[in-house]
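Cont'd.
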Amino acid sequence: MKKVLMSFAIGAAVVMTAGAASAQTTLEQVKKRGTLQCGSNTGLAGFGVPDAQGNWSGLDVDYCRAMAAAIFNDPTKVKFVPLSSKDRFTALQSGEVDVLVRNTTWTMSRDTSLGLEFGPVNYYDGQGFMVRKKLKIASAMELSGASVCTQQGTTTELNLADFFRANKLKYEVVTFATSDETIKAYDAGRCDAFTTDASGLYSERLRLTAPDDHIVLPEIISKEPLGPATRHGDNQWFDLVKWTHYVMLTAEELGVTKANADEMAKTSTNPDVKRLLGTEGNFGEAIGLTKDFGIQIIKHVGNYGESFERNVGAGSRLKVARGVNALWTKGGLQYAPPIR
Amino acid sequence: MSSVDARPGSAASVEKPRVAFWNDPEKRGYIFQAVLLAAVVYFVYSAADNALANLQKQKIASGFGFWNNTAGFDIGQRLIPYETTSTYGRAFWVGLLNTLLVAGVGIFFATILGFIIGIARLSKNWLVQKLATIYVEAIRNTPLLLQLLFWYNAVLKALPEVRDSLAIPGGLFLNTRGLFVPEPSFGPSFSWVLYALGAGILGYFGFSRWAKARQAATGQIAPLGLAALGLIVVFPVLVYFLAGSPLSFSVPELGRFNIRGGVQVYPEFVALVVGLTIYTAAFIAEAVRAGIQAVSKGQTEAAYALGLRPGPTLDLVVIPQAMRVIIPPLTSNYLNLTKNSSLAVAIGYPDLVQVFTGTVLNQTGQALEVVAITMLVYLTISLSTSLFMNWYNARKALVER
Ligand SMILES: N[C@@H](CCC(=O)N[C@@H](CS)C(=O)NCC(=O)O)C(=O)O
């Protein structure tokens, strides 16, 4: 009996103090732990995928590496936690990860009722369809009566329903919990079409037994602004997340690269470059970092353009064009507020 | 337990010693119970309160208001009307019914297969007995999830595409979308057939009661099988024709992408039923074998000595006694099958867990509420199955005279 009461007392104490522990800011927790816990994809080439040795790479992975570089001056101090679409928000809410960078679409309900905060969009995307060539379909409007494989817990699932409803087309949906199962079922012929973000289509296509037998249809049926998410309420941490991306964008705009960052820090007389690289002013302090957090990011990870080309652009298997993800100065949507 | 005798009212309690209440084991027991209860209540209350406060602080929605919000997603297999514009609550019912369907069908087939295999394990035929043993060992010792994935992929790989659908005589089609069977549509006078069937079943029960009583009194055996055939099969069929065959089928037709008309049996459903049936049947077989072996050999020998042939011996002597041993493990296998059906997630079958704790949880973000509801549902299903089986067990239990 005494033991039972004891364990209840302990249990109660745990529940009670759980609130107190989270009084520490996220940055303090990360620094104390020595690593950043980054919620990542289970494996999506170009965005977040581990190789055979367990080394992660991708555009979203670079985002977390850049944060680690800013905090620890060491881009390897990240633990990537692979999360399926349906588990990702619970993992973030419960504190299992510090930040979620996992091709996650910024929507109003996620922003306002899941207790999340969305940072800057690091990839502007939209949803598309992939079908077998031999079906001889040229447009998504010809998909009436088709069966479509998709992944659960995504905006994809909702857009799909909207698209067929709005166009008064009939379809049958088959929903799976993980991307592996979804693409396998499509490959096995369970569905006529496979749908997800266009970026995802290109990288999932590479996993099919015969990628060349499939085409991506031209329609883009939704807006998918993909960006990092953090827990609501820790504003300093949220600022750190935001400015990591803005530093990478500003670097691209100013022509600062992984290779020339040190050189630029020494020689540049451009005040914008000096502020970016921390040789003038102390902008890191307000977000709990040192003043050279900017140059640390660029030296270890590179600017946004470099990361893009390396992971999804010309330097990768995906060969995605910059398109709307080009800098605003080049007709794209990527635009960083000034560092000053 | 000397305190039992000291209870007021019992014969020995005339001289109850006066002790301080904290030294009275009985009263002390009540106090401990009360303290424990208070602690549990406080614990549950404070945990819920703490959770709610944390949710509010983190700006995470809470409460059950989401139930009536528009779901916005689609579900493949549904037994009740459901559309994109239906509510999350409706999605819950669709998922729950899919769970119950797969559990019900699975239990039905697993019981039949399990009894066959269990009896086969005791067969005197060497080959049959060995095959049954291999089946049980192989199935019980591999993970169910693996088996489900195997069945799903095996089923899918083997099926032809929609355009090359396999036409099965009788208006059936088989392809990667599943099995399409003619959809029955019942005329108004079909209810007569149902009444006839009901009357037939009642009649049969009445007859078998009478037959039993007569057998007990006179030893005469009535032709029960013949009566069953006549009352439950021939009689309703006769009524069916008399009512003018009030049943027609709309046969599925091959379209561009899919098949129009008919009822669609999804491959996910088939794979799940097959997987659960085969897996659970192995466990049921073991329960059946154990039950039969628990009936001592002497019982069989005694029956033979009385001149009963092997068939009636099994029917009248062995199985009724074996059932008492079989029913409790059978119950837990039914419960396992129901709970295991939640592995549906892996093969895209929209059961309760897939629809509700999958999509609904993610779209609403209300993990606590959704998981609590789901747990409650499984608890209810499990408890009602147990209650039913306990009642059945009590009926079958040895009536000692
Ligand atoms: N952007 C959409 C979809 C994101 C998503 O989960 N896409 C899938 C299909 S490409 C994926 O990344 N799956 C990989 C995984 O589950 O690890 C969302 O935020 O809901």
